[in-house]
Amino acid sequence: MMQLWRDYDPGEFYDELMYDQHQPRHFSYKLLDYLKSMRKEAFEQRIVDSELEILERGITFTVYSDAGNIDRAWPFDIIPRIIPKREWDCTEKGLVQRIRALNMFINDIYNEGNFIRDGLIPEEVVLQSKGYRPQCKGMQPAHGVWAHICGSDLVRDDNGTMYVLEDNLRVPSGVAYMLENRKTTKRVLPELFKLLHISPVNDYPSHLSAMLASLAPDIAQPNMVLLTPGIYNSAYFEHAALAQQAGLTLLEGADLTVANDGYVYMKTIHGLERVDVIYRRIDDDFIDPLVFREDSTLGIPGIMQAWRDGKVAIANAPGCGVADDKVIYAYVPAMIRYYLNEEPLLPNVPTWMCRDPDQLQHVLDHLPELVVKPANESGGYGMLVGPHSSEEKIEEFRQLLIADPNNYIAQPTLKLSVSPTSCGDHIAPRHVDLRPFILSGKDNYVTPGGLTRVALVKGSLVVNSSQGGGSKDTWIVDDSYFGGLS
Hints:
Blueprint: H1 2-5, H2 29-37, H3 40-56, E1 60-65, E2 68-73, E3 77-84, H4 85-109, H5 114-117, H6 123-127, E4 149-156, E5 162-168, H7 175-188, H8 192-195, H9 204-213, E6 224-227, H10 236-246, E7 249-251, E8 256-258, E9 264-268, E10 271-275, E11 277-280, H11 284-287, H12 303-308, E12 313-315, H13 332-340, E13 352-353, H14 357-365, E14 370-374, E15 384-385, H15 391-403, E16 408-412, E17 418-422, E18 427-435, E19 437-440, E20 444-446, E21 451-454, E22 470-477
Protein name: Circularly permuted ATP-grasp type 2 domain-containing protein
Organism: Methylophaga muralis
Domain Circularly permuted ATP-grasp type: 80-455
């Protein structure tokens, strides 16, 4: 194995497992010492075993392309990423703080509107968001929570500082793949779990089920379902896996109906059966053809009225996407101060608002150095990464910014942290991010770690699975017996 590591060098980037080219961090020493002590052939066999595990369990992800939809095996690297528990405890507090403020903001926007009235955000910024739904005005979901499942993307810079890159509040995906990554690691490297005290993640489905049940507090055993767009959705594997593990009935829109009494029912061979909670994995636009897109065949006519009347709970609530907007993202620190009277525990990435003329000019003057993002795209689409773009692409974005500055933000190109990754005949540093998942209902729960995504192409910053990124198991390791943090 030493020959695979011989030329490993993180260079100028912060490495999640290494101080430098030769020195492991104190909390990753046992892991790296074990891996380096393996015979090369044994390590390569573990990689083969992991690939077979993924194929045998049918863990897939659909990539959309011009050539058609490609259903491919989930890309997985067997070298895990480690975060020490004491650091993670602080991160977890910051994530809970953030989602509390975001839910208070959403509730405020659709009710009193104090954040706008007190001048903390221009009204037009909210109203122009594609996630803003005037049909949700006046709603008060259970516990004041709109975003019940959130996947916040975290990145670390070259100084080791953890930032929130964005918040995914509509139908965030990835948690089932996090669970499968852990199962795969346990099966191909079981001995490592005897070396280190690693926080478990396999209780997520039970936490998800309990959170959903808390949305129907007057029902002892609510009937809960997962609403999927169907087998052709890119994350259908996740929908099926979560439904099975959390005890939810997996349904499509055609399996549900709103009856004359205003309640939602699922169609069964025994007749109609009332549904109390819906974990929906379809976007607002498609959820109710009577309210949003008339041509939608994925949703249920009348479900919005049933939700407004309190006859069914929906997670995540319609309209929560207003806070999933990359322009509104810039106002989250102000939300935390306003609603919680606290300082943010997790910082935003520094952000320029292109709607401001002075900030727009700065962005235009430094476009080749910056990352530019549209307000409502996801998955790494529709954005500019200046240092990795052609002159033609930069000029194209210059014109887009001039034509519609309100739709864009810009951020510095962070030197994202790297983690050792198996790359065929060698181990190499590859850029990573992290998507932990936060559940909010009566209580809050944060996954210990989350889904680490990896940019498998050398030098690339694109970690999104839909664009060829990979993944790693993420370990939160109790480092108290190692003596200190680094």
